[in-house]
Amino acid sequence: MTTFYYIILFVLGASLGSFINAWVWRTHEGISLFKMDRSICPKCRMAIKWYDNIPILSYVLLKGSCRKCSKKISFHYPLVELAGALLFVLAYYANAEMISLKFILDLFILLVLLFIFVYDFLYQEILDRITLPAIIIIFIASLIIGTNGLYNMIFGLLIGAGFFLAQYFLSKGKWIGGGDIRLGALMGVILGLHNMLLALFLAYVIGAIVSFILIGLKKKKITETTPFGTYLTLATVIAMFWGYDILEWYFGFLI
After folding, report:
1. How many helices (H) and strands (E) does the chain have?
2. CA count, 13 A, side-chain hemisphere, 56
3. What pLDDT sits at residue 162?
4. Hey, how many other C-beta atoms are within 10 angstroms of the C-beta on 7?
């Protein structure tokens, strides 16, 4: 039965990853999710048949092209679908293979973070219409379920938002944008105080490593900006599932 759940969650995660792809593109194009019933090709904007819209599989069978216009479809589409599938599987495993309210909240958090990651990666923007409602929903849900304490979330929020707010004022908006401040607040609500601090550290480490690799491969210039929200969301997922283990290992290593 456990294997069956993993398969179902993999398929569900991939399907919602496909939904995230459509949501990101339509949001950027100013097209409502409810305006059209079916997915459309981002190149020719023709409706996609259901058999050409199977997550991951259709991309492989069509060799990354639209059946109607034959234009190449970005490789990020199946990657996001695969990411959604793996995140759902990870959440189930991290919740001791139990379906619970906490598990459902974790899935919601992961979908929000995936949207932010993809949108910031593609368009270098973090949308308030995503972060602000998510902060409210996660804050209230966490209190009801009892997954995170009130003061822990408040202090996490203050640290997360305050850290980026200070940078915003010091640089007069040159280092970071306002979206990073709201993302910091969201991270604080998700992680609480201690894991928030860990996530900030991890984000800068991951960002530095990726940037050095890209510069070394001549894919990026040292003067170019980077979508820092992608590193923040990735660090949030790591701290969300392994934060306490990492902190325990770190302090144990010091002692």
Report:
1. 8, 0
2. 16
3. 94
4. 11
Residue 176 CA from chain centroid, whole number? 18
Q: What is the pTM of this model?
A: 0.92
Both tokens assigned to 232: 């923040």
Please name the residue that has the structure tokens 């910091």: 184
Token pair, residue 137, equals 């929903």
**Contact between 126 and 229 (Cβ < 8 Å):** yes
Tokens of residue 211, six digits: 């940037």
Residue 152 tokens read as 């822990």
Q: Which helix (H) or strand (E) holds 180?
A: helix 178-216
What the block records as the tokens of 167 is 């940078």
Closest among 177, 160, 230, 232 to 203, alpha carbons compared? 232
In one letter, which amino acid is 127?
L
Distance CA 36, CA 44 (A): 15
Residue 43: Cβ-neighbour burial (10 angstroms; 0-12, 13-18, 19+): middle
Q: How far is CA 242 from the centre of its chain?
A: 16
Q: Is the pLDDT of residue 215 over 80?
A: no
168-205: pLDDT as tens digits: 888 877 778 889 999 999 999 999 998 999 999 999 99
**Which two structure tokens, joined as six digits, stand for 230?**
């992608």
Q: What's residue 130's pLDDT?
A: 96
